[in-house]
Amino acid sequence: MAYVALYRKWRPKTFSDLVGQEHVSRTLSQAIETGRVGHAYLFSGPRGTGKTSTAKILAKALNCEQGPTTEPCNECESCRRVNDGTSMDVFEIDAASNRGIDEIRDLRETVKFAPANGKYKVYIIDEVHMLTSEAFNALLKTLEEPPERVVFILATTEIHKVPATIQSRCQRYDFKRISGRHIAERLRYVADNSGISADEAALSLIARESAGGMRDALSTLDQCASLAEEKVSEDIVREVLGLVGHDWVVRILKAVSGHNAAEALKALSELIQEGKDLKQLIGEMIAELRSIMVYQAVGTSDGIDFYETSEETLKEGAAMFAPEAFAPMLERLHAALSELRWTSEPRIAVETAILELCRPQTAGTAAIGTSAAAAVQGADSVRIAQLEARLQELSAALAARPVHSAPPMRSGMPGAAKKTAVHPAVSAPGNVPAGQLKISPEGQKLWQDLLANISSEPKYKLIGDFLSRGQFGGWNKGMFRVFMRSPFLVRRLEQDDYKGLVESRLALITGQPMRLLCEVAGDLTPQAPRPMPKKKPEEKSPLEQQVQKDIESMSPDARKQMDTAMAVFGNHFVEVQENKGEASSVDMEAPPQEEDIPLPTDEDAPFPDEEDMPPVPPEE
Questions:
Q1: Which residues neighbour 167 within 8 Å (Cβ) at sequence distance 6 or greater?
Q2: CATH 3.40.80.10 fits domain 246-363
Q3: Cα(515)–Cα(481) distance, integer angstroms
Q4: Buried b / exposed e along 131-143 (16+ C-beta atoms within 10 A)
Q5: Please, are residues 419 and 408 in contact by the beta-carbon 8 Å criterion?
Q6: Residue 125 bridge partners (DSSP)
Q7: What stretch(es) of the chain map to CATH 3.30.300.180?
Q8: What is the mean pLDDT of residues 334-349?
Q9: What does the CA dihedral 385, 386, 391, 393 come to, rounded to 10 degrees?
């Protein structure tokens, strides 16, 4: 007889054989006992957690000759056919290879027929998320209202790819990852009943590396049993799985805790020479650091899954690192793990990460209880206390300092005196006492000279116009104050480009350094609007004056006709002279040369109105 793999030979055959999925087996058993079997089920969860096995157990339980029962006998003809995959009433469909609408249409045709031998027809669609959108739509109606005695069981590892319309028509059961303890117990049971000798440490390592999948664990045990001559040991498991090994990981972490970069890189080089996978190394370092961190936090190993189960090793690792060192170390190792997915030089990425871990300023791996760390921490505490005391003294001094208001400004209008309103957001007025900045004729002249100096250069004309919106607010031998109407104008004038230009021109005019002080004042003297340039009246010739008089003496209708003619032919008039010898005959003067006639322009033509439009012919 051909050899049968362990995961096939020891596949669960009853609900009691399911490992780690008690919530599913208990619910389905209760449904069978009470006769509340649904027409559609949706099993979701990671690979190797028992979804397909549960579906077959449910099919056997419904079609067993002693049932429906929660404990199928596995001996009757119906149960044996389900186990062998030859049952005419249980159809196992792989959606990955039968994902089109034609396959679903065939299923809809066959689902109408009654069961051949058993009580129910069961359709198990594995990896149902691989169906196309058209296939899902074709399945909807049949899935919602299937014929009597038909049960659909859909299994998937990617539940998010199953449409919500399908999920709403099924009873959903989520399969969880199996714990390492349950997997190890099942492996021990399989090994003892299969004649395989294995160490407990080896089985625990297989369970830990299977990531919660029973099928992966059984496959690994089968592979290790083939390699082992007498007994499955921990070293054999590490060799089969390609693990780096706990000793290598501890050696590198000890070098990191002692900031010994040379020793860490030497251990890494030896690992590479042995052909170890660097991605596996980073993963095991993360797992080891996680175990040390958790053990350091809880102080016990009871009830917690650790990468290394030896409590002595965990205590030794917990003494190497400070509690605040784990977060940056794990963050850097996860970054290296992500970088290994795309880099073409994995060794450089791992070496860079290990070197950063060896630097205390990067990794924060200061040893617990060292005198140097305590001294640095004490010095920092003293320095912080001194800075806080100094800050309190400065705050008290600023609070006690009186705030001076700006002097009132005289309006340019006679007899009017207005008080300057300083914006509260500007802190400059409190820095200069009011008596130090005076408004004097000399200052007013300096203000006018400043505006003229800046506006005289074309490239600074915009700055001059901007500055002219303000008003002189006082000055002394080293400071010049300008009031503006809004905080926005003040902020713009205080920027380096504007302020630097104004201060340089003040220094040029006065011959000494001058500092510009900008403040906001809402009640400034309103500026007179700039006069519009007056257009000089054009002198008209005597002929034009005579024509204007003639047009004014016309009736309204005649004047309108004249305006239309001027719009079409222009307003160039020539004097008409009478020829002698011809009674009452008027002739126009010879037209001027073509180059002398000014062409009509758009400005010469008035805008037409509705009365100028041509008449609309009557409709026939």
A1: 42, 159
A2: no
A3: 8
A4: beeebbebbeebb
A5: yes
A6: 93, 154
A7: 421-520
A8: 90
A9: 120
Residues of the chain with CATH 1.20.272.10: 246-363
CA 129 vs CA 132, 139, 145, 160, 255: distances in Å: 8, 13, 21, 8, 48
- The pLDDT of residue 431 is 47
6-174, what's its fold?
Rossmann fold (3.40.50)
Tell if the pTM clears 0.90, that is, is over it: no
pLDDT tier for residue 334 given thresholds of 50, 70 and 90: very high
Helix or strand holding residue 208 (H, E): helix 200-209
Cβ–Cβ < 8 Å for 560, 568: no
Three-class SS state of 38:
coil
Which H or E run includes 551?
helix 542-553
- The residues, any chain, with a CB within 8 Å of residue 73's CB and separated by 6 or more, are 64, 65, 66, 79
Parts of the chain belonging to CATH 1.10.8.60: 180-241
236-269 per-position pLDDT tens digit: 888 888 888 888 888 899 999 888 999 999 999 9
CATH class of the domain defined by 421-520: alpha beta
Q: Give Rg (Cα) of the chain.
A: 49
* Contacts of range 168-172, beta carbons closer than 8 Å, 24 or more positions apart: 169/40, 169/140, 169/143, 169/144, 170/38, 170/40, 170/41, 170/42, 170/143, 171/38, 171/40, 171/41, 171/42, 172/41, 172/42, 172/44
Residues of the chain with CATH 3.40.50.300: 6-174
Which pLDDT score, from 0 to 100, does residue 398 have?
Answer: 63
Instruction: Kindly give the residue spans of alpha helices, DSSP state H, lying in 15-132.
Output: 22-34, 51-63, 77-84, 101-110
Give the residue among 369, 355, 330, 368 at the shortest CA–CA distance from 259: 355
Measured between alpha carbons, how far is 69 from 265 in angstroms, rounded to an integer? 63
Total Cβ atoms within 10 A of residue 40: 20
The SS3 assignment for 198 reads: strand
Cα 176 to Cα 30: distance, rounded to the nearest angstrom: 20
Q: Among residues 225, 160, 216, 159, which one has the least CA distance to residue 192?
A: 225
**Which residue's structure tokens are 């049971």?**
189
Read off the tokens for 470.
Answer: 């303000």
Q: Tell me if 390 sits within 8 A of 404, measured CB to CB.
A: no
Residues with Cβ within 8 Å of 63's Cβ and at least 6 positions away in sequence, in order, are 78, 79, 82, 87, 89, 90, 115, 117, 118, 119, 120, 122
Has domain 180-241 been given CATH number 3.20.20.150? Answer: no
Give residue-wise pLDDT tens across range 41-98: 999 999 889 999 999 999 999 999 887 888 888 888 889 999 888 888 899 998 888 8
Nearest CA to 308 among 326, 332, 291?
291
Which of 3-7, 12-16, 156-160, 431-435 comes out lowest in average pLDDT? 431-435
- CA 333 to CA 352: how far, in whole Å? 10
Among 404, 500, 483, CA closest to 439 = 483
- C-alpha to C-alpha distances, 70 to 54, 451, 467, nearest whole angstrom: 12, 100, 94
C-alpha–C-alpha distance, residues 228 and 256, integer Å: 35
Q: Is the peptide bond before 323 cis (omega within 30 degrees of 0)?
A: no
- Are the CB atoms for 116 and 83 separated by under 8 Å? no
- Separation between Cα atoms, residue 281 and residue 251, nearest integer Å: 12
